[in-house]
Write a structure and sequence with these properties.
Blueprint (H helix, E strand, L loop, with lengths): L2 E5 L5 E5 L30 E2 L3 H5 L6 H10 L14 H8 L2 E2 L4 E4 L2 E3 L3 H8 L23 H8 L10 E3 L2 E6 L11 E3 H8 L9 H20 L7 E3 L9 H4 L4 H16 L6 E2 L3 H11 L6 E2 L21 E2 L6 H9 L13 H6 L15 E5 L2 E5 L36 H4 L1 H8 L16 H12 L22 H21 L58 E7 L2 E6 L6 E4 L10
Pfam families: PMD (PF10536)
Protein name: Aminotransferase-like plant mobile domain-containing protein
InterPro entries: AminoTfrase-like_pln_mobile, MAIN-like
Length: about 600
Amino acid sequence: MAERTRRRRGGRRSTHDENVDEPIREMSIASLGSSHRAHDPDQASPLVASTHLRTAREWPVECPRMIYVLRNLGLHNIRHLQFIRLDHNLITALVERWCPLTNTFHFTVGEMTITLQDVQVILGLRIDGPAVVGLNVVGLGRRWESWPDCCDELLGTHPGRETVYHAPGDEDDTATFRMGSSQFESMLPLRWLRWTFYRDSYEQLAPGPFLYHVRAYILFMIGCFLIPDTSRSHVSLQWLPLLMDVESFGQLSIGSAVLAHLYRELCNATRPTRTYIAGCVALLQVWSWERLYIGRPTLRVPQIHDLGGRPLGCRWAEDRIRELPSGNTLTYRDEFDGLRLSQVCMTPYTDDILATLPAECLEGIEIWRARVPLISWKRTEWHLPDRVMRQFGGIQFTDVRPMELNFRRIDGRGRADLDWTVQYRDYLEIWEDRRAYVVAITRPEGTGNQELGTYLRWYRSWASIYLLQPQTEPPETFFPRSPGERLVADYYIRSSAILEPLAGVKDKMPVHYNRPGRSQHRPGTIRPKGSAWSPFRAIAWTIFSTVPIGLADVSNRPGRCMQKITWSKTGLKLELNSTDRPRTIPDRPGRYWSRS
């Protein structure tokens, strides 16, 4: 394929396909090579979400005065959304499927992504409003000469390096704070915000001090939940000048800024060396739970009529779920490799569900399918619903346009004096005219299987959708990759242990097992180089290290025999001739338990 490489501003290089008839050939994850963690996922670092949900829970808001103001700003729902337990292994497996060239996940069933619809339905944030970008107002000759001056006017105070602060309710817990590590002092410690401005009631505050507390709480939630960065302890002061007029801040498109920031963090997290992922990771996980059966917990109350006027994401809070899967990255990776259409819910937001949601979850419905740039101050990312029209109930066609051939991701590093309203002028114009860029939808006639088959054949012809590669040599230990393999392996070992007393075998566990079959590999033999090894074609395990799922630990309790096997709606039950209650193997798609 003919390619050309051209120098861009800033010394970076970008490769583009000269053949305009096949621009999509460069849109696969494989084209990114070793710069993407999917190139060698086993060598990439596991990801940890750099969010502060636990810290956010330390600032509960129950005061009616504060709730009233937050409701008018469209931010009152965020106080209910911090109680979501994160699955870091699931998040890592999702990032391995993220393609920065399309801002979509590349699954075996097609492309999927988080859209403006998901942001508004799950979080209840405003998406239809001016973009979140502003002027540089701090510096010599500007409104404030320094960030401490800005804090003094908008918050009433700023962290003093020599000041000792006490935690609310615990005078023995003390600390000193700094405004970031740079000389510009452009960061605020999240803990300082809580220690300084948290209180049980704000009713007795005068209007001025009360406004300080409102700004502090919003800034705190931006750094903890909505737009956290990888600092893991601070929030950027760039958001504070936007809060000078609190009512105007409430009219901004906060939801699009949250999505733009999450898109960028997903792109950054695809680098093999990255160990943290920032952004609103709770949105990513709830989106996965709503649309995919992999790693999804069980809801205690599946109906949503009891949400009390809250957004849909609240139904996944910790007190509403049970049996949260505890999978590992390898397990999720295998399940995504085998993902089927029956394990995906492309349109989870049915009319019945939307009818129960509050008005703030639906007010931007006109721009849910807008193909526009999303702006989050110094970052901009493309929102491409035309690549995932099936998520809106439409037909996905194959003539999709690339993101933008000359698109370049930049941020604020080394650009302290850059006017972002000028830098993103073209993008801002598109966003202001966002209703003109709404993608038309074509509903399928009948089942739509023919159109779906056409799309999947086209998609699978260029997308790299499988991450796991067959091994060429048998491993010394066998680790089941999926619930199916774990169940088979567990049954194999347990059966031998159960029959051991009957056979009179003295040794509890043989050194190795040779499964009969057409293709066997015995210890000491050499397999042809390059031949694929499979645990179901040839098994020779000198060590078989597995964790049982749902079965009683029979191997460690000699003399107990299986008495009865029954099958119920909840799974397979093994009853032992003991007083222990039966154990159950859950049998639900996309679940992974590790119980011993």
